[in-house]
Amino acid sequence: MLSELRVFSGNSNLELAKEICAYLKIPLGDAVVKTFSDGETMVEIGENVRGKDTFVIQSTSTPVNHHLMELLIIMDALKRASARRITAVLPYYGYGRQDRKVAPRVPISAKLVADLIITAGAMRILTMDLHAGQIQGFFNVPVDHLFAAPVLLRYIKENFSDDLVIVSPDAGGVERARAFAKRLDSHLAIIDKRREGPGESKVMHVVGDVQGRTAIILDDMIDTAGTLTQAASALEAHGAEKIYACCTHPVLSGPAIERLKNSPIEMVVVTNTIPLNEKAKNFDKIQALSVCELLGEAIKRIHEETSISSLFV
Predict the structure, then answer these.
(1) Exposed (0-12), middle (13-18) or buried (19+): which is 206, by Cβ within 10 Å?
(2) Is 202 known to be catalytic?
(3) Which one from 18, 111, 193, 242 is the annotated catalytic residue?
(4) What per-residue confidence (pLDDT) applies to 230?
């Protein structure tokens, strides 16, 4: 049944696309995706896709706008080549943090990007660990929202002993941390972050008992690592024996690596929804896990029109 399935990729995460195709036991689709000297994106599909079920794998990660344009143009090329269905596979959905108006006269960029993706030809979305689950509602096509939890949970169970405490670095991540703590039968702690006054530094309060325990800080992404490293320092001050961090999306921009180097965090476990940048590749505190089987199985089931509910854990 996979004879009608075609998987294509932009340049944002080519290695993950190849791993997914290896799992599916099909070749990566033939496409040229390159940049002209003036910065324009050029795409040419090198095989017949008329009537085919096509999937485009592209994380809208750094450089975000360039990779977003690659995704849009690849889908437009497939649409004009008469593909039967186009599914946008977004391991990491850039602009996901701009999901609401936080001040007057600002855009809701996550909604704008969703509209662009649909206009370009996406008939279905497959994504992972959206910053806010409500972003699914920005699309007027079916959205399959996977979680990296099975991959991260398996790693934690295999590499950590008892007496763990799962830590949410802020109030927004409590639901995610609680779900992990329940699955691991471990303790839960929350970092309460606040400013005591204008211009004063943040004070980190730890809600929960971390004394003498191994703490694992859980988040959906690590960007500049400011919140993460502040949370780690607070846990250290409250007597945590060892401190680790887990996240799905290793954005790791700006001073992230330097902050992690100078923090009490012993290891940062991430997934390959975003390829590690050069600094991160040379940083021995980072362990990257692959989500190729999870995404590959979802693609297979979507193509075969079978249930993927068991993957939503």
Answers:
(1) buried
(2) no
(3) 193
(4) 92
